[in-house]
Amino acid sequence: MPPETTAPPPGRRRFRKRFAAGTAVLCTAAFMWVNNTDVLAYHSAGERGVLAHRGLGQTFGHEGVGNDTCTAERIHEPEHDFLENTVRGMRAAFDAGADQVEFDVHMTADDRFAVFHDWELDCRTDLSGTTRDFTLAELKRADIGYGYTADGGGTYPFRGAGVGLMPSLDEVLAEFPEGDLLLHIKSDDPAEGGLLADRLSALPAERLAGLTVYGGDAPIAALRERLPELRVMSKDMMMDCLLAYEAVGWTGHVPSSCSGMQLHIPEGYGPWLWGWPARFTQRMAAADTRVVVVAGSGGFSEGFDDIGSLERVPDGFTGLVWTNRADETAAAIRDRSG
């Protein structure tokens, strides 16, 4: 007869179950730490880049800025004579060392694209209304430096100097045939995405590879449907990617919703992402996705605009750094590459 076996007492069984569960939790926690800590990550040097927001232009204080604030009326004392969203300002940004230059596009009355930031023309120019109220030819006669003042209206240092400086999208593409460009659709009109698709579809594949478009969910969806090979980003796309990554990123897996895009990550949100910054940027790069770190909450054009602010860019970050002052920061951004 087989020997009799005696079951362990209930207290010991409970201990074994708790020990097994605790060991599983500890092993999982250890795996998550090892798989996501930057302490053990490979920090590749020389890969941090510069994204020049609106090229090179005048900067302004962000305190109290809202959606209706006319930022041209609160610029800092000018240190240069470049204006945002101009060919000259974009050229200056590239010359200063920018890897990618961002600019804004709006539809015109004759279904062209003007390069200009504001929906309303009244703040910066000598015109009143929206870009859609005017033809491109009419907009090109506007003075885009008309409304800038650093002393509450005492002086207007760029008034008269901005006549004819509002470029078209076609002019920018012609001026920078090989430049890495980031186009911002300022509306949420799907028709604008369709019109932009009409324009960009005429470009060769190698030129499309150097363009990225971001903006409202509806126009970006329309654009992506027509040009699936184009790198695009919208708020919905970014949220789909990041929520999925938060769920599974601890394993090192990058969800398909994160592939082939450009992510703009506010500096305060980055530390909540698995593997931030080095492993995160490396994982996204492997999925053909660029990562951009933006200052503050990411709203109202905040950038890393002086040497001191670059201390907040984390070691090991190897994506693009958003700046409004490429002339002041580009060299330092590269010197501090992770």
Written description of the protein model:
This protein is α/β, with parallel strands linked by helices and 338 residues long. It has a single domain (46-59, 69-335), classed as Alpha-Beta Barrel (TIM Barrel). It has 10 helices and 9 strands. Strands 1, 2, 3, 4, 5, 6, 7, 8 and 9 form a 9-stranded mixed sheet that branches. Strand 7 (262-266), helix 9 and strand 8 (290-294) form a beta-alpha-beta unit. Helix 2 (87-96) runs parallel beside helix 10 (326-335) and helix 5 packs parallel to helix 7 (217-226). The chain is globular and about 95 Å long. This is Glycerophosphodiester phosphodiesterase family protein. Residues 48-333 form the GP-PDE domain. It holds the Pfam family GDPD.
Question: Layout of helices and strands, plus pairs?
Answer:
Blueprint: H1 10-36, E1 49-52, H2 87-96, E2 100-107, E3 113-115, H3 136-139, H4 169-175, E4 181-185, H5 190-200, H6 205-208, E5 211-215, H7 217-226, E6 231-234, H8 235-248, E7 262-266, H9 278-286, E8 290-294, E9 320-323, H10 326-335
Parallel strand pairs: 1-2, 1-9, 2-4, 4-5, 5-6, 7-8, 8-9
Antiparallel strand pairs: 2-3
Helix pairs in contact: 2-10, 5-7
Protein name: Glycerophosphodiester phosphodiesterase family protein
Organism: Nocardiopsis mangrovi
Domain GP-PDE: 48-333
